[in-house]
Design brief:
Elements lengths: L13 E5 L2 E8 L7 E6 L4 E5 L16 H14 L3 E4 L2 H6 L3 H20 L6
Parallel strand pairs: 4-5
Antiparallel strand pairs: 1-2, 2-3, 3-4
Helix pairs in contact: 1-3
């Protein structure tokens, strides 16, 4: 029986080559949680963003997540512009698949955040 344990901390963009496949690991502070990792296959135009660019902040009833981290994560996706964007939940892939959709989502979320701040109302 094999046992695998992490032995390297990834604290910055890291490129690996496994069997001739280039893999980029990109740590981010995502929207749903404060720590996350994008996995990009640049030669294949694929990026796995797990739940990092999820448009909600934290799980329901749990105060977590990071609004600025969500915006920064969206910026990375838009900059990389992968052909295929995979989220950790299939409905997110279906609804927020192409990076232009995420860019538009960011615009609307910024407006909502500013509106809430201007009215001095909580964003919950």
């Amino acid at each position: 029986m094999r046992s695998f344990k992490p032995d390297v901390t990834i604290d910055g963009a890291t490129e690996l080559n496994i069997g001739g496949t280039r893999i980029r690991l990109i740590p981010v502070q995502g929207g749903e949680t404060r720590d996350a990792m994008f996995i990009e296959l640049p030669d294949d135009g694929v990026m796995f963003v797990e739940i990092s660019s999820c448009p909600n902040l934290g799980a329901p009833f749990v105060e977590e997540g990071n609004l600025q981290g969500l915006f920064d994560a969206i910026d990375i996706v838009v900059e990389k512009h992968p052909q295929h964007l995979l989220h950790g939940h299939e409905p997110l892939t279906r609804n927020f698949g192409p990076s232009p959709v995420l860019a538009q989502l960011k615009t609307h979320l910024l407006w909502l955040a500013r509106t809430g701040i201007e009215r001095d109302s909580p964003r919950r």
